[in-house]
Amino acid sequence: MKILKTDRLYLRNLELSDTDYIYEYRNNEECYKYQRWDDFSRGDIKLFILKFREDSFLSTKEEQHFAICLEADDVLVGELAYFHNEEDNCITLGITISYQYHKNGFAFEILKEVIRKINDKYSSMDIVGLIEKENFKSVKLFEKLGFEQECYAASISSYVYVLYGKKLDEKI
Fold first, then answer.
1. How many CB atoms lie within 10 A of CB 141?
2. pLDDT at residue 171 greater than cutoff 60
3. What is the pLDDT of residues 113-122, one digit of tens each?
4. How many domains does the chain have?
5. Strands (E), the chain
6. 17 is in which domain, residue-wise?
């Protein structure tokens, strides 16, 4: 079931049939060098999928994960991570696009639509991206989406980028 659509992509729940695709890009250096995955084996990926395959997009569940697929041929191109934090009044987003699909604008396209949906439902919540210091492509992506660098958090070796609630419509 398609949860959210753009011109070229859609989000859906993870499925066990995604295991091999996820295994392939999670074990590719271009994809994992800025990630903090502990689950590189097929078995761990299956457990990950089983844990998150029934997530409900934009729910208040603390951690959610979704598949990003091509609209044209239903091929999995990456994953979206969504962390809902009522206490801090923020939603943290993470994204991975398979190395095979880099430089197609997919991350920007899907994140732009995800941000619009978050704004519709949780307009007062801030949206956060945590980006490792050397991940210049993600820094540019989040800045293009209107995020502002708030600080560098040495404890997690990441820049904290924020798109402040109630200002989202002005940014994109």
1. 19
2. no
3. 999 999 999 9
4. 1
5. 4-5, 9-13, 63-70, 76-85, 90-97, 126-132, 148-153, 158-163
6. 4-171
